[in-house]
Write a structure and sequence with these properties.
Elements: H1 5-23, H2 25-54
Helix pairs in contact: 1-2
Amino acid sequence: MAVNSKKVAIYVLAVFVLYVIITDPAKAADYVQVGFEGISDAAKAIGDFMTWIANGGDS
């Protein structure tokens, strides 16, 4: 029976995340903060773009 590569990749990623959290919780917290800042910046950029579109695309 063939192993689904997507499942293997998810398990490997989960093990890596747990390893990072267990070995260095402060560094893991920094990674999470960077991730949320990136998501926040992306959401703000999309909001600014939608506002620009709603205003007719004027600069």
